[in-house]
Amino acid sequence: MKLCSGQRDVEFYADSLLPHKNVVIQSAVVNEKRRLEVVINGEKLQYPGVWVRQNCHCPECFNPVTQSYISSLKKVAYENLKLKSAEVSETGDSVRCEHTDGHITEFDALWLYNRRMTKDGAKERHATLKISTPVSWPNPSDMVVKRISYKEVTETYEGFETFGKSIIEDGIVIMTEAPEGQVFKDFIQKTGLTRTANHYGEFWYVKSEPNPTNFAYTTSELDFHIDQPYLYNDLNIQVLHFLNQVTVGGENIMSDAVKAANILKERNPEYYHALTTTEFVYEDLVAHETHSPQFFLTKSTPVINLDENGQPKAIKWSHSCRSSFFNGLPEQYELLMKAAQEYHKILYEFAIEIKNQPGDMMVFDNRRLVHGRKAFGSDEPRLIEGWYFDWDMLYSYLRVAMMKRKKVEP
Ligand SMILES: [Fe+2]
Ligand SMILES: [Zn+2]
Which residues form the Gamma-butyrobetaine hydroxylase-like N-terminal domain (predicted)? Predict the structure, then answer.
């Protein structure tokens, strides 16, 4: 018979994010379905016998360095294994299970409780990993965009948490006092937030050019838009680092487009329906350097994209990337444009204006917010360094920052 060292010798990093609870196993049996049945703090919980075996943490079954299970369906014939017995430790802080092949598996009480197969357990874990939820913007006069220094974000876990949570909750945050010059590489190196590849390159500069290849590289007003709605892999989060700013004009106009979609739904359900169902075609055909079409990106999508619960989640809107192709009927286009015009009015009704200064890095959700800019003169330089990163990486480093902060806290 092999004795396993048990879970208590293994550190499970993910558990440190879950709320700490004092839990005691009051009883443990193998029930008639051959499941492990325990009562923890008065709550009866069941775990399949096969799950108990698959999640054994003995050195034969688990590698604590990679935090992954070694046992595989090839090596272990789970269908022939059954749970034989379960025994609670004297203090109720762990349970020891024996399988029919003599293998022993030991679980810590809280570890087991954190993995309870109940709706409430799943809800708690989901909320923990999501960290926070979007908060609809208040009226423009009450909207405060959080500002935090570049140093705090890139050098402290608390700063990084504030930064990440603001993007989740408000869809926007401004880092201040960024180092002079290009900070793209420094930011990525310090935060781990690798850039999202796209056909404009690793990063790009927004500046007015004599022969602009993109409408953003003019001095004109930019209407509300999201960047690159023609991509299948959405650009998630956008960074605009202001290296130079003009004295007059050049303000950024931002709006919570999900909030505006919800308002449109209340005010005009027919328009809302059109914007959530009829598809618009977006495209990008112009080459970055040579002006000859070296790429052709296109996507057909409704303006308002819904989530799995039917709620507005992402906005696909950019007039400058709109294609002249339309895959619907003439009357659908007419209705769609009326709806878009109304939606646009709501976007402006709840918009805020931000005049970023050199050293400011405005970071925002490119799916939830729309952004625009006011026109400016050509006698002063206005230069912005920009790039994108993904939600996956932000969530990943946020969870890491939260785990590390918990570890260093007394
Ligand atoms: Fe843009
Ligand atoms: Zn094992």
Answer: 32-113
The one-letter code for the residue type at 273 is H
Q: Which residue intervals of 216-373 are DSSP H helices?
A: 257-267, 269-277, 330-349
Q: Which ligand is nearest to the CA of 366?
A: 1
The CA 166 to ligand 2 mean position distance, Å, reads 42
Q: Where are the domains of the chain?
A: 7-118, 140-404
From the CA of 52, the nearest ligand is: 2
Burial class (CB in 10 A: 0-12, 13-18, 19+), 333: middle
Distance between CA atoms of 38 and 88, rounded to whole angstroms?
9
Residue with tokens 């290296």: 243
DSSP 8-state secondary structure symbol assigned to residue 183: -
> 172, 200 in Cβ contact below 8 A?
no
- Say what the pTM is: 0.90
CATH level 3 topology of 140-404? Double-stranded beta-helix (3.60.130)
User: Tokens standing for 190?
Assistant: 């310090």
CA-nearest of 83, 48, 52, 85 to 69 is: 52
- The three-state secondary structure class of 36 is strand
Note the pLDDT tens digit of each residue in 365-385.
999 999 999 998 877 888 999
User: What topology does CATH give the domain 7-118?
Assistant: NE0471 N-terminal domain-like (3.30.2020)
- Measured in Å, how far apart are the chain's first and last C-alpha atoms? 41
Confidence of residue 4 (pLDDT cuts 50, 70, 90): very low
Ligand nearest to the backbone CA of 56? 2
How many helices (H) and strands (E) are present in the chain, helices listed first? 10, 22
Residue that has been written with the tokens 């974000």 in this structure: 153
Give the span between the Cα atoms of 27 and 73, in whole angstroms: 30
Please check the confidence at residue 2 and state whether its pLDDT lies above 50.
Answer: no
